[in-house]
Amino acid sequence: MGLDEFVTGRIHQMHFRKSYLAAHTTWEDPEAHTTCPCCKEEKETLDHSILHCPPKSDICLLHLPGVDDTGPESTLCTTADIIRGLVNYIKVTETGFPLSMVALWGPPLSPG
Asked: In terms of domain of life, where is this protein from (predicted)?
């Protein structure tokens, strides 16, 4: 399918709760804040960061139309088109990227 190795690694890590999402705490800092750094409203879980984060909602609709669940039985990784959409969504929103890689003071998110 020719997917970006970095982003496919992020997807794998997010599914196994061993990622840079804030709610995926590690043994290194179990007291770390779990709030989403994008909206600062809820815990940054896989479900929240992909489907429910308000600042990312237009981007989700653009790249993941019809996807409404991230669980094991979801359609999230079932077809090549949805996987490509997820990869594009993660790249555009920098979801699950290490903080050292995120443009913290960059321009606001945009669907394009």
From this structure: Eukaryota
If we measure between CA atoms, which residue out of 24, 7, 16 comes closest to residue 83? 7
Q: Which residues of 68-101 are buried (b: 16+ CB within 10 A; e: fewer)?
A: eebeeeeebeeeeebbebbbbbbebbbbbbeeee
| Amino acid (1-letter code) at residue 109 | L
CA angle 4, 8, 11 (to 5 degrees): 150
pTM for this predicted structure: 0.72
pLDDT in tens, 93-108: 888 776 665 554 344 4
Output the CA angle 45-109-26, nearest 5 degrees. Answer: 25
Structural domain boundaries of the chain?
3-104
